[in-house]
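We were asked to recover a plausible sequence for a given structure. The inputs and outputs are reproduced exactly as logged, with field labels preserved.

PROBLEM: sequence recovery
POSITIONS: 142
GIVEN STRUCTURE:
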């Protein structure tokens, strides 16, 4: 199975996980999340990551999605995955957003991991756009 593991600072990963439940299906056992909460020590977070991925086996693949490249949640989760011997079966992406995570969830079972990354990264970059709304100024209102 291909798993999507979401990690972040604060409650971003669990919130993203909740949004994915709404958009990609509530009964998805292939999407997991944990986060480094304010005031939480790295040992506690590391143990939470261990518990989060305990069901993943050597036959599985992982798409690890984190909020910040080089941030503690992504770095520590990568270390846990490495200690489990799963790093060679893992693709790690930082800067996750909802469109990227949603596309990954919907497309991951239909393509190889390399193809999936090639498909979702450009799409995630393209969705970031400024929205300019035109306003009508009413001259009678003073």
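RECOVERED SEQUENCE:
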């Amino acid at each position: 199975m291909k798993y999507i593991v979401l990690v972040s600072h604060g409650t971003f990963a669990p919130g993203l996980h909740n949004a994915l439940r709404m958009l990609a299906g509530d009964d998805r056992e292939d999407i997991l999340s944990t986060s480094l909460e304010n005031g939480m020590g790295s040992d506690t977070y590391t143990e939470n990551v261990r518990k989060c991925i305990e069901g993943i086996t050597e036959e599985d693949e992982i798409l690890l999605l984190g909020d910040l490249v080089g941030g503690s949640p992504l770095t520590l989760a990568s270390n846990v995955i490495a200690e489990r011997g799963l790093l060679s079966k893992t693709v790690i992406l930082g800067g996750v957003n909802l469109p990227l995570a949603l596309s990954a969830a919907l497309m991951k079972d239909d393509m190889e991991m390399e193809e999936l990354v090639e498909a979702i990264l450009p799409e995630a970059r393209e969705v970031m756009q400024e929205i300019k709304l035109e306003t009508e100024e009413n001259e009678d209102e003073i």
